[in-house]
């Protein structure tokens, strides 16, 4: 008698359903915690975000039954390679910012409306401002990476590598809800997911995410720092585009070794949980346009 053939798709419905529900678990917990408060400052927002994302991580890992080995928290790459990924992430991020800025300018010219952005105002005269800074630059990146490049990416990677990279990045973008921030997060998610799988490390995207948020935050405090930051980002963008042109054949070869031949995207994103999240994303965008 032939031994039973293992079917890697036998848990597809459970995994895809669990990931979609995880987004709604995050939203539901966030809503439940914030409802009792008439006013939420940045410090309280940081605490609520920590509690909410921890619950979401626990739910996602439990439902997908993904096992993340402790070795994944090792760096698994040299400092030089980590620097390369940081330059690539910063460069592609700058390309995304330029593209979004062009779209935003065209949109504003036509409609006289500004594309809404998330407000990251730091008030260092209070503990609340410092707590929010600590969350944005350290705690937030760590927990987001454990969820998105840990539980979600590793779960999707059971099925196909490039599907996992693209899908997890899209989910990461949707998670941010704001249109401009979400589009930028999608590009960051692509690089973070690629680097994480390439090095088989969760520490790599954690450090990259921390570096990115810290650089973005502190260079916004001074016009001179902002100018230096822009020059650095433009230089990184040139390097990233040169890298892409030199490695496009290698990327195609990698894809050909494990092509996306199964309709993974439709199987994942045409579920009710994701369709309703797309609707929430659109409604949030529309409302933010109206409210300003």
Concise summary:
With 292 residues, this protein is mainly α.
Form type? globular
Which structural class matches the secondary elements?
Answer: mainly alpha
Rounded mean pLDDT score: 88
Q: What helical percentage do the residues reach?
A: over 70%
Transmembrane segments: 23-40, 46-64, 85-107, 127-147, 159-179, 185-210, 230-248, 268-291
Protein name: CAAX prenyl protease 2/Lysostaphin resistance protein A-like domain-containing protein
Domain CAAX prenyl protease 2/Lysostaphin resistance protein A-like: 129-214
GO molecular function: endopeptidase activity
Provide the descriptors you would attach to this structure in a database record.
single chain; 292 residues; mainly alpha; 0% strand; disordered N terminus; endopeptidase activity; membrane; transmembrane
